[in-house]
C-alpha cells in the first residue's frame, strides 16, 4: 500500500513538472527581445518608462505607448530608431539585428522632440 502511494505521488510530480516545462518553453522570451515603453509624467517630469535587457540574438521588438496629451519622440540612436508617437498612440517597432550597434553595453532611449525629458535605458545581457 505504501509503495503504491509513493509511486502515485512521484508520478504526479513528474506529470506536473513536465506540464510546467512545456508551458514555460511555449512562452515568448519577453526579456530577451521584446520591451515595452510608455510615455508618462512622474513628479512633474515626462519620461519614457520601461526598458530592460536584450540578448542580441535576433530582432528587437519595442512596444511603445504615449499616454500623454502631446506628441513625443522615441529615439534610440544606437538602433537607428527615430519616431514620433502621437497622444494615445500605441506602436510596435521592430529593429532588425543589423540596425543595432552591438558594441555598446546599453542603449539610450530618449525623446528627440523634448531634450529635457528623462531618458530610459536598454541594457545588453552579458555586458
Number of domains: 1
Q: Could you list the spans in which at least 5 consecutive residues all have pLDDT below 50? A: 26-32
Helix content: 10-25%
Overall mean pLDDT stands at 86
Shape: elongated
Q: Give the helices and strands as they follow along the chain.
A: HHEEEEEEEEE
Short descriptors:
alpha/beta; about 40% strand; elongated; about 130 residues; 4-stranded mixed beta sheet; about 25% helix; Immunoglobulin-like
Summed up, what is this model?
This protein is of the alpha/beta class and 127 residues long.
Give a verbal description of the structure.
By secondary structure, this protein is an alpha/beta fold. The chain has a single domain (30-124), classed as Cupredoxins -  blue copper proteins (Immunoglobulin-like). Helices cover 23% and strands 39% of the residues. The strands form three sheets. A four-stranded mixed beta sheet has the order 2-1-4-7. A three-stranded mixed beta sheet has the order 3-9-8. It is elongated, with a radius of gyration of 21 Å. The model is unreliable at 26-32 (pLDDT under 50).
Amino acid at each position: 500500500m505504501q509503495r503504491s502511494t509513493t509511486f502515485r505521488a512521484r508520478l504526479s510530480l513528474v506529470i506536473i513538472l513536465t506540464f510546467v516545462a512545456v508551458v514555460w518553453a511555449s512562452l515568448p522570451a519577453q526579456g530577451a527581445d521584446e520591451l515595452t515603453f510608455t510615455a508618462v509624467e512622474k513628479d512633474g517630469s515626462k519620461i519614457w518608462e520601461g526598458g530592460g535587457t536584450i540578448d542580441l540574438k535576433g530582432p528587437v521588438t519595442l512596444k511603445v505607448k504615449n499616454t500623454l496629451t502631446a506628441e513625443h519622440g522615441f529615439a534610440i540612436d544606437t538602433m537607428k530608431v527615430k519616431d514620433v508617437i502621437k497622444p494615445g498612440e500605441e506602436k510596435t517597432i521592430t529593429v532588425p539585428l543589423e540596425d543595432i550597434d552591438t558594441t555598446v553595453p546599453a542603449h539610450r532611449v530618449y525623446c528627440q522632440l523634448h531634450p529635457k525629458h528623462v531618458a530610459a535605458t536598454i541594457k545588453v545581457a552579458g555586458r
